[in-house]
Design a protein that fits this description.
Chain lengths: 173, 557
């Protein structure tokens, strides 16, 4: 009797989980927007990521860390094109450092010496990383002028910036 | 678990009611990660085959968000866990679940269930995860975040900590509760919002409750405290792009397995300054850590149930030989350390900088034992030792000096070179059983990247480590070819060419290839994996040698 009850409970539990998951999926036809997490910028001001906007133009969000070589290659390459991309598409790039307390103080001198002109936000506890479902860096997200997620890419290989540029042009036209 | 599923479902149902009243329904997002390994025996490298012959770690996070409400869970599978992971992680089930409601208008944010949180720099409280390493000390309880007025934020946490997983979440013994308040003076005082000088003081208090008992030391019977408290004062000052900070952390009355059950106060002091002068930017940091292990169970060790986190002073190296043979971890019972970093960029178009500019950085970090005197008699049994000063002790833990230079020569070619000089005390950080004492090593790295065709590139790394101690000299060769945006293939060979024992001069050859499409990534690899220290983002775990096939898949949606 006890075993039977336990089995019934397990079956009911699995059904419940499946039901919940299914009902969740049904809501997924709607575009994801930038979740709201409070982060600090390099000047010490608090920024709510939910309020990031770019006057109707696209926003690129890049997750990176000072210990991540492909991340730095990606952002250094973006920097080479940033001026042109801004002229053509009005894009704003926001680079989110997931360096924790071991290396978060290294972000500012690295960024200064690299001449990056992106907005830099610090996510040392990984709150924004979790909210954005990022597992490993680099991970890059593109939002359109209405703040809807339109493209994302995990990892970086030389030449990926061309794909991002094509996506930006699609939004600009 | 039963209760939580009921609760979780109710939350969804309630949000469904809300959903029907509003125009926008909820949004689901999440991710999936899978790591499969199959094992082959390889007596040369000491790789053994576990009874199950293969291992699988998988997990998926699902987050549901609807207006101010969100709920999430993580389903985890360890069937069986891959080698190098905590072997006691077993089975499949829900290892993380929460419901959260936040209202920015009134400044209230409440979470029930699991959550991660950090107070200040984490010296007193940091609940976090490094999934790839099986490190997870998620809280399970309640968190309340309040913003009563502009510029003031308060965090309150109360709960148990994740310790283990056996088809369901298993929490540690102790109860952890704490409060943190941070005041952003510029947001609090009208007229200072846009000032260049920004001052942010903070205060944290954390306490742990665990059933007590007695401990016998010689003729003494000592009572184990049920409640242990710690607190942290911190201040961060920004002036334009300059930033400095100081954190003082204290903890009392915490005999533990880490400190040999002594009652001495724990203290940590950390100060740092970063800034730039012309084309130079720098970082200076000084830290002292004295008896600062703090866990939600006083009898646990290593990675189990830490309440706080004191980060390592050394650089988080990215090159294989520099990062994984001798990674340094803070000596939590006591160390005195310093680091200084200098960054410089030769401008684009200058005579020395070349067309694209040249970047350089010099990093120096060192850590010593504390300046202490052992106590004797009853005082020694109770308090162990006393610290004489805030200075350095006699015994070196680590000294790491590295210089890196990076230059883009043309549109199609760039290169990076690194030299590192390392002195590493394996008695302070026991990363090897082959050698006890100070390892002196010189490491040279040359990395090049050539664009071979449109969207195609070849990246190579040549690394050599020379040392007379431990396992002797090593070399690593990496070659990686990428076809953007979808394909990659790489090969890595680590060769212990200087091992004193000639039979151990082994090549660890590993090849992998993969496919990426947007947020989805699949990779397949085959070869030998060296016994060593595997690190992700500065946290490290010892991984045994293994040989065989490896498949990974990650995706987010």
């Amino acid at each position: 009797m006890h075993i039977y009850l336990h089995k019934t409970y397990c079956a009911a539990k699995n059904l419940l989980i499946a039901g919940v998951l299914l009902s969740l999926m049904m809501g997924n036809a709607y575009a994801q927007s930038i979740p709201s997490v409070k982060l600090k910028d390099l000047a010490g001001s608090t920024i709510d990521t939910g309020t990031l906007e770019n006057d109707g133009k696209p926003i690129v969000i890049c997750f990176w860390a000072t210990w991540c070589s492909p991340c730095k290659r990606e952002l250094n390459n973006y920097m080479d094109y940033y001026g042109d991309w801004q002229d053509e598409t009005g894009v704003r790039i926001v680079a989110i450092s997931i360096d924790d307390s071991r290396s978060t103080n290294r972000v500012s001198p690295y960024v200064m010496s690299s001449g990056w002109e992106f907005d830099i936000l610090l996510d040392p506890a990984g709150d924004f990383k979790r909210a954005m479902n990022v597992m490993n860096v680099p991970h890059t997200f593109l939002y359109n002028g209405a703040g809807e997620l339109v493209w994302s890419h995990n990892n970086y290989a030389e030449g990926d910036e061309e794909e991002l540029y094509e996506e930006l042009l699609k939004l600009a036209n | 678990m039963k209760h939580f599923i009921t609760f979780f479902t109710l939350g969804i149902l309630v949000s469904g009611v809300v959903k029907s009243q509003e125009t926008s329904p909820g949004v689901v997002s999440g991710n999936i990660s899978m790591l499969f390994q199959s094992y082959e025996e390889d007596s040369l490298i000491g790789a053994v085959v576990p009874p199950s012959k293969s291992g699988l770690n998988a997990y998926s996070n699902i987050i549901y968000t609807q207006g101010n409400f969100s709920a999430g869970l993580r389903y985890e599978s360890y069937l069986n866990s891959v080698l190098g992971f905590p072997g006691r992680f077993k089975g499949s089930g829900i290892g993380y679940r929460y419901a959260r409601w936040s209202d920015k208008e009134v400044g209230v944010d409440v979470t029930v269930g699991n959550f991660y949180e950090t107070f200040g720099a984490g010296y007193l409280f940091r609940s976090y995860e490094a999934r790839d390493l099986g490190l997870d000390n998620a809280m399970d309880g309640v968190r309340l975040l309040l913003q009563p007025i502009d510029g003031v934020s308060v965090k309150m946490i109360y709960g148990k900590q994740r310790l283990d997983f056996d088809s369901e979440l298993i929490n540690g013994d102790g109860i952890v509760r704490g409060i943190n308040a941070e005041v952003n003076l510029n947001d609090l005082i009208p007229g200072l919002e846009d000032a260049k000088l920004r001052i942010t003081p903070s205060y944290s208090f954390v306490s742990r409750f665990q059933e007590g008992g007695n401990i016998v030391k010689d003729t003494l019977i000592l009572e184990l405290p049920k409640n242990v408290a710690g607190w942290e004062y911190g201040t961060t000052v920004h002036y334009g792009m300059w930033k400095g900070g100081i954190h003082l952390t204290k903890k009392i009355n915490d005999p533990s397995a880490d400190n040999g059950y002594i009652y001495k106060d724990g203290e940590a002091l950390m100060g740092y300054l970063t800034g730039n002068i012309k084309d130079f930017s720098f970082l200076l940091q000084r830290s002292i850590t004295d008896n600062m292990s703090f866990r939600s169970d006083r009898d646990l060790l290593l990675f189990d149930a830490p309440i706080n986190n004191i980060p390592s002073i050394t650089k988080n190296h990215t090159y294989n030989l520099a990062a994984t043979l001798y990674p340094y971890a803070t000596v939590i019972n006591g160390e005195s350390s310093f680091r200084g970093e200098l960054y410089y960029k030769l401008k684009r178009g200058s005579r020395l900088g070349g067309k694209y500019g040249t970047k350089m950085n010099l990093v120096f970090s060192t850590s010593y034992s504390l300046d202490t005197t052992s106590l004797s008699g009853v005082e020694g049994l109770v308090n162990g030792y006393q610290r004489n000063s805030w200075g350095f002790g006699d015994s070196l833990n680590v000294q790491d000096i590295s210089f890196e230079i990076e230059r883009k020569f043309s549109k199609n070619f760039k290169a990076k070179a690194m030299y590192m000089n390392l002195q590493f005390n394996t008695l302070a950080t026991p990363v090897t059983t082959d050698f006890k004492g100070i390892v002196f090593a010189d490491i040279f790295v040359l990395e090049t990247q050539i664009k071979t065709a449109k969207r195609q590139s070849l990246r190579t790394e040549l690394q050599v480590l020379f040392t007379e101690q431990d396992k002797g000299d090593w070399a690593t060769i990496v070659a990686e070819y990428t076809w953007s945006p979808h394909w990659f293939a790489s090969i890595i060979d680590q060769y212990n060419f200087g091992n004193a024992d000639e039979s151990k001069r082994v090549h660890y050859l590993y090849g992998s290839a993969g496919y990426i499409n947007g947020p989805h990534r699949l990779s397949i690899g085959y070869g030998k994996r060296r016994e060593g220290i595997f690190c992700v983002g500065g946290v490290c775990r010892a991984v045994p040698a293994s040989s065989g096939l490896e498949v990974t898949f990650t995706s987010s949606f």
